[in-house]
Design goal:
The protein is of the alpha+beta class. It has a domain of 83 residues: Sporulation related repeat (Alpha-Beta Plaits, 2-Layer Sandwich). The chain contains five helices and four strands. It has a four-stranded antiparallel beta sheet with strand order 2-3-1-4. It is elongated, with a radius of gyration of 25 Å.
Length: 134
C-alpha cells in the first residue's frame, strides 16, 4: 500500500513538472530575428533540396554508360535513373531520397545486380523527385 502511494505521488509530481515545462517564453534579439527571417526567405526561394542518390557507375566511356543505363531501365522501370557529366567521367545515378536511410534500402536491393554501387549526396534534387516512391 505504501509503495503504491509513493508511485502515485511520483507520477503526479512528474505530470505536474511536465505541465510546467510547456510554458516556455523565448526572447530573441532583433538581429537574431532578422537573420531567422532572412534564412526563411532564402529557403522558400530555393528550388532544390539536398538529398541522396545511388551512384551505379562512373566511366569516361559514354557508350558504356548508355548501355548500362538502358539495362538498368529495363530491369527497374519504376526507378528514375539519369547521368551527370563531371569531366572526364559520366556518372550514372538512380533515385532521389531525402534521407540516407531511404537510399540505403534501395542500395541493398540494387547491389545484387550492380556490385560496387554507393551513395552520393546531391544538392540539386527537386522536391518533385522526392515525392515518387520506388
Amino acid at each position: 500500500m505504501i509503495i503504491r502511494t509513493i508511485i502515485l505521488l511520483l507520477f503526479a509530481l512528474g505530470a505536474w513538472t511536465s505541465i510546467e515545462a510547456q510554458n516556455v517564453l523565448i526572447e530573441e534579439d532583433a538581429p537574431i530575428g532578422q537573420m531567422m527571417d532572412r534564412f526563411t526567405e532564402l529557403n522558400k526561394a530555393r528550388s532544390t533540396v539536398t538529398g541522396w542518390r545511388i551512384q551505379i557507375m562512373a566511366t569516361p566511356d559514354r557508350q558504356r554508360l548508355e548501355n548500362v543505363k538502358q539495362s538498368f531501365q529495363y530491369r527497374y522501370p519504376s526507378i528514375p535513373v539519369d547521368w551527370v557529366h563531371s569531366a572526364p567521367y559520366y556518372k550514372l545515378r538512380a533515385g532521389a531520397f531525402a534521407t540516407k536511410l531511404e537510399a540505403l534500402r534501395l542500395k541493398y536491393i540494387l547491389e545484387q545486380d550492380y556490385p560496387g554501387i554507393y551513395l552520393v549526396k546531391d544538392d540539386a534534387i527537386t522536391p518533385r523527385e522526392l515525392i515518387g516512391r520506388y
